[in-house]
Amino acid sequence: MIKYRLLCKNCNLNFDSWFASSNEYEKLKSKKLLVCHYCNSQKIEKTIMSPQLINKSKSDENIKLQRINEVKKTIKSYQKFIKNNFKYVGKNFAFEARSIHYNNEKKPKGVYGTASKKDLKELRDEGIDAQMIPWIEETDN
Fold it and tell me: Given pLDDT bands bounded at 50, 70 and 90, which one contains residue 126?
């Protein structure tokens, strides 16, 4: 559908009209089926119109923002689970992971903390399963 602003050349009336396509407008005009509803003249012309643009950037931005918020919500739910079910060991993560892995007497309760990429690679090379996950710090904002 396309909307045109039309002008009656007889009475100078401006009015809007909808057409299935621009070709449909041309067909109706050539068959003299376009008529002014005020004076019944067939002297109807299109006027200059500014296009009506949909602001996709705002709608795209809103969609992206929604997705980011959904991801943040998921990450925070994982964080809550980890905090409730694992022991926080801070920067001693690599040491604690090794002691759990190599000490058969120690109960294998999960731990979480911080480790460098180098530490994680070394743990994996030793056959110790360790994963890096994104972590969102709690803020007041």
Answer: very high
User: Does some domain include residue 109?
Assistant: yes
61-120 residue pLDDT tens: 888 889 888 999 999 999 999 999 999 999 999 999 998 888 877 666 789 999 998 999
Q: Which amino acid is present at 77?
A: S
Residue 138: inside a domain, yes or no? no
Domain that holds residue 63: 56-125
CA distance 10 to 1: 27
Residue whose C-alpha is closest to residue 15's, from 24, 7, 25 = 7
Comparing CA positions, the residue from 27, 23, 6 lying closest to residue 15 is 6
Q: What span, in angstroms and rounded, lies between the C-alpha atoms of 52 and 4?
A: 11
Count: domains in the chain: 2
| Residue 100 CB-density burial (10 A; 0-12 exposed, 13-18 middle, 19+ buried) | middle
Q: Is residue 37 located within the same domain as residue 66? A: no
